[in-house]
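To make this tangible, this section ends with a sequence with its structure tokens:
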Amino acid sequence: MDEVLFNRYGKSVYRLCGAAFYDFYGKPRGFLVGKTVYDVRGQHRGFYVNHLIIDRMGRILGFAEGAQANGFKFPLVEIPPVPYKNLPAPEVPSDAADRRNPAIVPSWSMMPLENLLV
């Protein structure tokens, strides 16, 4: 599963390659355990549900092609840059678990997607 993740303006920010999130420089930024998003330090950052990146409150941070949320309108997307070769994927901490995600709130989060996995 390789998906491009876009922010609220349609700008490509991350790529989901298998269970690892990468930026377009090929740097690993986080990983996915079930539907739960972690950064490279192992901190829980949000969820990836139905092609939507949502924060811990259920608000939308970003989206991939095919995302839908109760008639919510997503912006047109830009053509993503050509990615650099990926560095090795991050190690998944042994205590990283798939958490229960909240109901999706069809509104944008205050946090930009760019800040999710820094």
Notes: The mean pLDDT is 94.
